[in-house]
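## retry 2 of 3
previous attempt timed out at serialization; input unchanged, resubmitting
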Amino acid sequence: MKRSYPFIIAAIVASGNPVFGAEDKGYFLMSATEELPATYNMNFGWRFNPGINSGAESVGYADSGWQTVDVPHDFQIHQPWIEPSPDEKPDLTNQMANITSRLSSRGFKEMGEGCYRKVFTPQDSWKGKRVLLDFEGIMLVGDVFLNGERVGGTDYGYLGFEIDITDKLKYGEPNVLTVRADTGEPENSRWYTGGGLYRDVNLRVTDPKQYFTRHSIGITTPVVGEKHSTVNVTGEIATFVKTDSIKVGIEIFDREGKKVYEGTNAHWSHPKQHVREFRLDSISLDNVTLWDTENPYLYTLKATLYRPDGSVADQAVERFGIRSIEFSPDFGMKLNGRKVLLKGIANHHTLGALGAAAYPKAIEKRLKMLKDFGFNHVRTSHNPYSESFLDLCDEYGILVVDELYDKWTTQYAGGRSPWSERWQKDVPEWVKRDRNHPSVVFWSLGNELQLIPDLQFNDWGVTPYKLQKQLLNRYDTTRLVTVAMHPRGRNERTDSLPAPLVMETDIAAYNYRYMYFPGDSKRFPWMMFYQSEANTSNLGPNYFEMDLDKVIGLAYWGMIDYLGESHGWPAKGWAQGVFDISLEPKPMAYFLKSFFKPEEPMVYIAPFENSKTTQWNGVTMGGRTFTDGWNFNDGDTVKLYTYTNADEVELRLNGKTIGRKQNDIDNPKNRNRIYWDKVPYKKGKIEAIAYKDGKEVSRHNLSTASAASKLKVTGDNTEWKADGIDLQHVRVEAVDSKGRRDKTACQSLKFSVEGPAEIIGVINGDINSEELTVGDTRRLFNGAATVILRSSRTPGEVKLKVHSDKLGDSVVKFTSK
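## retry succeeded, writing output
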C-alpha cells in the first residue's frame, strides 16, 4: 500500500462501501473521475471459496454461497492444522530443507487452491482510456481471469504485475474478475508462505497514448551534502503521438510539502520508437536534510508528462531520501560519512496471527518494536517483502538488505515455471520497484544456494550470479550485490577457502560462520563481511567476537517466532526467537538490547527455565530459555542472569543485598550477562541495580504475583483509521489485585465486537497451541493473549468484550476515525 503524500497529484479513488445488487451478487460500483491517472482501490468486497471451484471464472457462475472477504487476505491461515501421521519421517536427504515431516516446513497447513471473484461495472469515462489491473502479489502462484478469459497471472507470488485489460472490458454491464491462487506443493517452500490475495489490488486508468511505464521513475543522489546535493532522475515513457519532443516536468517537495525544485525538460522523440527513456541530471538542491536512521527525512518527486498541446497526460510520484552509502574492508559501511553497523533481523514475510496478509499496521508494529530494542536493519529473507514494508522502513530509518530469491531453482521459486526462464523478468520488476527506497542499502540475489553444483552452468552459481547482476545494474548501479552463503558451503575442494560464489559477490555474506572472517580477510583483503544470519544460541559472542569496526554487521535469524520451519509437531513453527509469535519480548530480547543500544543504560533479570537445543543447517539453534516472573516453590534455589551494559550489578531480594558483581566486558562470551547461581527463592521482590562509574544508572525488578483476579485489556492504536485496513492490536492480561500478571493463568477467552470492526486474528505466545489464529476464542498463555481488530470504512465506536468464565467480563471501547 502506497503511503500518503503531501499533495494530490492524481485521483486516488477509494471505492466507498460496496454497493450490492438486489440479489446480493457483489456488484462493486466505483465513483466517477475525470482526472488521469486514476487509481481505484480494489481490496474490498471480494467473494472467496477454498478449493479448485471448476468453472468459477465463467460470468454466470453462482457464488452466492461464498464468503465475502477483503484484501489483504491469507486463505491458508484459516485452514486446520494437519498433524503428521506416525509413519512420516524427517527428510535426511535434503541438507537444505530442514524437514521433520511432510508439512513441518509449511506450518502444518495443507497445500491447495483458493478462488476469488469480484464483480464490477466499468465507468463510461474509462472508454478510450488505458485500463490496468495491478496486483502486488498472489501467493504462491496465481491466474487472473476477466469475463472467463485468462488475462494474466504470476509464477512468483512475491512480486507484483500488471495486466492491460483495456480491450477486455465490457461497458454497460457487470464484469467478472476471478483470481485463482495456489500454494503449490509442500516442497515449493521451506517455510509457511500463506496463500491468496495477500497484498493490495488496484485498478489504474491512464491516457492511452502517452504515459509513464511501470515503475518508470528512478532517482539517484550522486552528490550528497547538507549544504548542497544533486538529484538525477531517469524514466521510461510510452508515446503513440506524433511529436518532435516530449516534455517532462519535475517537481520536488520537502517533508512539509514545500516545493524546493521545479523544472521542465524537452526530450527528443522518434516516430518509430514508442517506448523511450529520459534522463535529467544534476538537479541542484541547497540546504537539504539528509535521510538517516535517526532522522529519516523524505522528499517527494512528482514527474509530469505533457501532451503536445501542453495538457497533462500522466503523472508519477516517488518518495526518496538524500543519503550516501560507502563500503570498505577498513570500516564496513558508512551512512552519510558515519560508520553504521547493521544490527538486524532476518525473518520471513509473515505476520503471526495474520499469516501472510500484508497489513501495514502489523508491519509498523514490528518495526517500532525492533527499533525500540536497538535493531536498525532487516534482511528480507528470502523474498521481496511488500511495498508498504519498504515505505515504513523509509519512514522509520530501518536499513534493508533486499533479497530476491531463496534458491535459484524452479522448486524454491514458485515451482510452476523454470527459474532459468523467469529471472529475466523478476529482476527488473524487483529492482525498479524498490530502487528509490533510501532504506535499501544493498541487494541480495539469493540464499544458501552455493551447495547446488548444477545451476545451469555447473559452476556453483557463479555464472547465474553474473548474469543477474548484469541485468540488475541495468536499473541500479548505486548499490552493491551479494548472495547469502550456506554455513556448510565452503570451497568444494577445501574448507580453508571460500566458496567460488563468494569470490564474485560484492559483499561476503556468511550465514553463521563469522569465525571465517579473520582468516578470509587475511587471504583476500578486498573482502567486506556481513553475517547474514546469526543464531540465538550464540547470542552475544557472535556479535562481540566480530571486528565491529570493520564488519558491515549482522542479522539474527528468526528473532520473531513464526509459522513454518517447525522442529517437530506440535510446534507449528519456529520458536527460537527473542520475541514470541504474539510479539511478547522474551528475556533474551533484553540481553540483545544491552549491546544493540549501548548508549541506553539498562539491567534486566532473567531467571533460568530450561535448556533445549537442536541442529538446523548444521548449526546449533535454541539454547536456554528464561522466565520473566518470580514465582517458584518455597525452598527452591534459582539460577539467573542479569543482563546489563553497565559496569556492575547489585542483586537484592526483598531489600537485602545478595551480592554485587562486575560485568566482564573483556570476555565476549560473558559480556553483558552476569551469572548468579543458587539464589534462594523467597516470595516478594527481587531487584537488580546497575552502576556505571559507581553511580546507579538503571533498575529492574520481578515480583511474586498472586492468582489472577481480573483481566487487563489494552489497545495499541490511538489514531485508528476507518479505512478498512487499519488494525487495533488488543493485549489481554490476567492480573492480580495489584496489577501484576499471573503467568500461570491459562483460561480460555471469548471475544465479541460491536461496531464498525471485525476480529481478524487471535494469538498468544504458545507455538505449540492447537488453537487456530482466527476465530473469536483463545487461551491465555503465560497469562496473556492478543486479539486483532480490523476497522471498517465507517468511523465510529467499537466495543470489544472479553469474557472469561473465571475472571469475568471486561469491556473496552475504541473509536475509529
